[in-house]
Amino acid sequence: MEYRHLGKTGIQVSELSLGSWITFKNQVDVDAAAEIMAAAYDLGVNFFDNAEAYADGKSEEVMGAALKKLGWRRGSYLVTTKIYWGLYKGVNEKNTLNRKRLIEGINASLGRLNLDYVDVLYCHRPDKTTPIEETVWAMHNIIEWGKAMYWGTSEWSAAEIVEAIAIAEKHHLHKPVTEQPVYNLFERKRFSGEYVRFYKEHRYGATTFSPLDSGLLSGKYNTGIPKDSRASTANMDWLLESVRDKGKLAKVQALEPIARELDCTLSQLALAWCLKNPYVSSVITGASRVEQVHENMKASEIAPKLTPEILKRIDEIFAVKQDEDED
Ligand SMILES: NC(=O)c1ccc[n+]([C@@H]2O[C@H](COP(=O)([O-])OP(=O)(O)OC[C@H]3O[C@@H](n4cnc5c(N)ncnc54)[C@H](OP(=O)(O)O)[C@@H]3O)[C@@H](O)[C@H]2O)c1
């Protein structure tokens, strides 16, 4: 496993990491979660991602119980969580980054995770109504109180992040250090376009999510929806259109000869493609079983095989002109 600095920070994160969205609680219990995390940790993963909203807080409970069971040294791993959507419908409790919500939110998350602090606390989405200054101050205080080591953003625009950094600089507060954006072969435009200049200038970190587009890029949906897959899990109706999209499936199939040439699986190829982007700090993977972890973590070995010629062929499949990406 290779490690990359999280943006400008001194912290190094495994270039492949593991998240718990959809899987923990919905698909796997504490014992299975511990096995999946242990498989990742044994292969060098040191970064585990979560959010208060995942399984309505239960994903944090599962990860907390799994960590207790695993008994790892706290310094040997990083845990992250995110706040925004909230667990309740009260007017100040949902879709907000107000000070009260953030502080109540981190306290509740730490309780569920059974941890004294998280390593990165993300604002899960931008809040268009709370002044960014209020959010920056609250995140600064949370760090000062030792409840989080760093803070970051998720799916904020470059302009919102620049504003947050400017406010923090003006008041000598802790700045956000990393974004958590979607990034995969289908969803690359914002990361490779809007964000690039900003990553260059600010050396902001990027812990990217859904590298397999919820599993689609593994090829598992090429011949229908497998019974034990994410798309067949309860309440996943929103995913059905994507995994049945003929245009997307044709592109995944067109990747198969390249994967064969490189002697790797489609999942490894799609993950390796994310790793090739130098602005990525860590690619957050998801796994519903141990075998997927074993397969996916080998992507690090495939990334060096992605020559400019191979990358060009991949771009052609996804109909991206080389000069469309700024990176
Ligand atoms: N910040 C945000 O807003 C945000 C949003 C989404 C995700 N995230 C984070 O990013 C993490 C990863 O996102 P994601 O789970 O969507 O990642 P993904 O890699 O796009 O999808 C992971 C899912 O694909 C399937 N899969 C994984 N490896 C496979 C393999 N080798 N062969 C076949 N199927 C495979 C598994 O589902 P099945 O086996 O069930 O089919 C797995 O749970 C999340 O856990 C979360 O921490 C953040």
What brief labels describe this structure?
single chain, 327 residues, alpha/beta, eight-stranded parallel barrel, two-stranded antiparallel ribbon, 41% helix, 13% strand, binds NADP nicotinamide-adenine-dinucleotide phosphate
Summarize the SSE layout with pairings.
Layout: E1 3-5, E2 12-14, E3 16-19, H1 30-42, E4 47-49, H2 58-70, E5 78-83, H3 99-113, E6 118-123, H4 132-144, E7 148-153, H5 158-171, E8 176-179, H6 189-192, H7 196-202, E9 205-208, H8 237-243, H9 246-262, H10 266-275, E10 282-286, H11 290-296, H12 299-302, H13 308-317
Parallel strand pairs: 3-4, 3-10, 4-5, 5-6, 6-7, 7-8, 8-9, 9-10
Antiparallel strand pairs: 1-2
3D architecture notes:
This protein is α/β, with parallel strands linked by helices and 327 residues long. 41% of the residues lie in helices and 13% in strands. It has 13 helices and 10 strands. The protein has helices at residues 30-42, 58-70, 99-113, 132-144, 158-171, 189-192, 196-202, 237-243, 246-262, 266-275, 290-296, 299-302, 308-317, and strands at residues 3-5, 12-14, 16-19, 47-49, 78-83, 118-123, 148-153, 176-179, 205-208, 282-286. The chain has an 8-stranded parallel β-barrel with strand order 3-4-5-6-7-8-9-10, surrounded by 4 helices. The longest helix is centred in the last third of the chain and has 17 residues, at 246-262. The chain is globular and about 55 Å long. The structure holds NADP nicotinamide-adenine-dinucleotide phosphate.
